[in-house]
Amino acid sequence: MGLPVSADGLEGGKDSRNMNGCMASIETMFLLLCLVLLPGCSGQQAVAVYANKDSPNTDSTERAIALIKSDPAGPVPAPQLPPDFVSAPAAAPAHMPTGDGIVYSVELSAPDMPELAGAFKRSSLLYSLIDVHPQTLTGLEQRLNVSLKTGRDILHSNGYYEGSVLGRIEPSDRLSSGTAPGPDGNATAAGRERPVDVHVIFTPGPQYRMGQSSVTWPKLPVEGGRLPKSLADVGLPVGAPAVAGDVLAAIDRVREAFRNQGYPFAVIASTRHILDRNTRLLESEVHISPGAFVRMGGVEVHGDHSVRPAYFTSQRTWQPGAPWNQEQVNRFRDSLRRSGLFQSLDIAPAQGEDASGLRPIVATYTSAAQRIVGGSIKYDSDFGPGVQGLWEHRNITGQGDRLRLELPIWADMQGLTGTYRLPFFLRSDQAFIARAGLLNQHTDAYDLQSAAVSAGIERRFSASWTGSVQGSLEAGSIRDPDEPRHEYMVLGLPLGMTYDNTGNLLDATRGARVMFSLAPYTGEYSGEFSILRSRIDAQGFIPLEKDGRLVLALRGAYGTVTGAPAGQIPPSERFYSGGGGSVRGYAYQSLGPRNKDNDPLGGSSVVEFGLESRWKISAEWGLVTFLDGGMAFEDSTPDLGDIGKNLRWGAGVGLRYYTALGPFRFDVATPLNPRNDDAHLQFYISIGQSF
Fold it and tell me: Which of 236, 267, 289 is the last residue in one of the domains?
């Protein structure tokens, strides 16, 4: 039989509650007796035993479903505790600092349920106040009782409505720091008490699942579109775990579906949830108040007039007269923010319709500074110390264009690069990009002096897909270890395609990136040559904790040159591996074919792998461990045997300091299978993650 649930409790028969209460009292007394007697049988005298008072047979436990609340006034609020609990194994006893008061450690048991353990560690008073010692045992008991209620909420938020959390306080075999045992084994120094252990035991029980759900609304002023009729229509199917956060997220998606079908003011009018203990199912009823039906108009701009209204119109993602679509409005806002033209930006529907019955979108902005000057100091084992200067002029013509000059200066490399970007070139989703640069570089692989220019277009096909095509010309002089200095010239038509759904270029915590380039080149080196150079890079980011505090990052790359042997093309077009951007622990460009003097020659193909665990210890600091592998090969298509036999591996640790610009990176790496001339350590310092 289903029981309707509200924030005030559950509906049910009085007689069943009385009978359940009697049975709960008998079971509780028996449980307390067992927990007190059993430790004594093993030689440990328990100080106190505690349990969450609401047993599975009482109204109180059923009332916990009120974590998923009805809100007749508007949208459903967030649950009392965050539902995105993360994996974390039950830890050894926590560190016990010295000081006045009762020193305690926490031993947590949540068999096969690391998400419960991790959530309890982040949310409970026992852990958050472990360095603040209670003055009395009563104070510790109160702290434990509050934490047990937190543990019960964690169970319910994860769908374990029949679960329980028990607690026990008992003397510890350990002595607090600076305390010496007396003849009777008790602490004697400074009158401090022997520390105590607090045991917390989770017993989850069965996890409840989603049953049937419904979404209802009053008669719409304009019918049409595909509106969800159940939570299953927005990604929460029957049979899914009844996790509070997932239910709330699905309800929010219901509201967004209405906002994308012409109803920007849709709100959740009420919700009703029914917990059926016979079937262990949670059934949900959602009622929507859709509000007025709205058709989208043009763009009204309010700001300091430094950005032309035509710029906003060119970014528009909808056609006037179409039903309101909040997703298109969000894309419009995100595109404007990516431009870097605005210090602040607000996008909202106008208060009313215009003369044609359409509702404009109002953009209110404060422009960012048009000119910026910046610089940075860098260091790594490849190039040594270096500095980089930056100058940028934004919105030169009022169309969102910008000119950027960069001047990197290292001991072995100096350059000057200018980039001009004009958005909305011929289309609203297309930009024109032109570059020109000078480069002077001295490495073990080659000496190079060159000038290069390129121009092309970049088009955004969707929120995740971007493509580009450009023409390029590079010319100069170059010398590799086995060849005298040559004048060279390379003419190319590089094509590129990128998929990126990470949302963060410098510090991704979830999602994936795939970058593919295909570039036909022709030119003159020691003779004429024509080649096809291609490369694919794939990166994946897996959050091991849903809040992004622990992330597993992986990367792989493969590149090849066909059409001519590596020795017949300029060294700058060959493949190299090793260094901070590929295989840390090895010198820059050092992995690959080498001559008799062990100077790198570059190859016709490259294979690389990388793996990082990124742990954000606090809001400012993070720790990284990593493993990199890679090698450049003479053949354009090396076989798997050559790859497995010749790969070089490096490993290390890194420190991250998180700033507004991105994480500041300091990595230390060592080669795992070094050659005779490889250094023991390599250092890398920069802004942003390694990939």
Answer: 289
> DSSP letter string over 17-78?
HHHHHHHHHHHHHHHHHHHHHHHHHTT---SEEEE-S--TTSHHHHHGGGGS---TTSSPPP
One domain, residues 591 and 542: yes
The span from the CA of 280 to the CA of 302, in Å, is 54
Parent domain of 563? 371-687
Distance CA 349, CA 359 (A): 7
C-alpha dihedral sign at 20, 25, 26, 32: positive
Round to whole Å and give the CA distance between 89 and 109.
9
Residues 518 and 436 in one domain: yes
Q: Are residues 157 and 215 in the same domain?
A: no
646 and 518 within one domain: yes
Buried b (16+ CB within 10 A) or exposed e, 348-380: ebeeeeeeeebbbbebebebbeeeeeeeeebeb
CATH number of 465's domain:
2.40.160.50
Q: For residue 578, is pLDDT > 70?
A: yes
Q: What are phi and psi of 423, to 5 degrees?
A: -75, 165
**565 and 647 part of one domain:** yes
Confidence of residue 174 (pLDDT cuts 50, 70, 90): low
- Total number of domains constituting the chain: 4
Is the entire prediction scored with pTM above 0.85? no
Range 337-342 average pLDDT: 81
Domain of 319, CATH number, reads: 3.10.20.310
User: Are 529 and 600 within one domain?
Assistant: yes
Rounded Cα gap, residues 540 and 609, in angstroms: 12
Nearest of 79, 78, 77, 72 to residue 289 by alpha carbon: 72
E strands, 306-358, are 342-349
Question: Is 336 a residue whose pLDDT tops 80?
Answer: yes
Q: What is the pLDDT of residues 379-432, one digit of tens each?
A: 767 777 888 899 999 888 877 889 999 999 988 889 999 999 998 888 878 899
CA dist 550 and 87 (Å) reads 10
Q: Based on the domain organization, do 227 and 178 belong to the same domain? A: no
Q: Look at 212 and 86; give whichever has higher pLDDT.
A: 212
What is the layout of strands, in order, in the sheet containing 9-10? 9-10, 3-6, 267-276, 281-289, 209-216
**Tally of CA atoms within 13 A in the half-sphere of 269 that contains its CB:** 11
Q: Considering only CA atoms, which of 420, 418, 417 is closest in space to residue 399?
A: 420
Find which of 362-376, 391-405, 474-488, 520-534 is predicted with most confidence, using mean pLDDT: 520-534
**In 3-state terms, what secondary structure has residue 427?**
coil
Q: How far is CA 657 from CA 26, 194, 620, 623, 661, in A?
A: 55, 39, 5, 9, 11
Q: Which two tokens stand for residue 18?
A: 């009385």
Q: DSSP states of 102-168 as a string? A: --EEEEEE-TT-HHHHHHHHHH-HHHHTTTS--SSHHHHHHHHHHHHHHHHHHHHHTT-TT-EEEEE
Q: Are residues 196 and 69 both part of a single domain? A: yes
Give the C-alpha separation, 404 to 392, whole Å.
4
Which of 154, 187, 203 is the endpoint of a domain? 203
Measured CA to CA in angstroms, residue 573 lies from 441, 468, 606 at distances of 14, 20, 12
Strand partners, 196: 104, 171
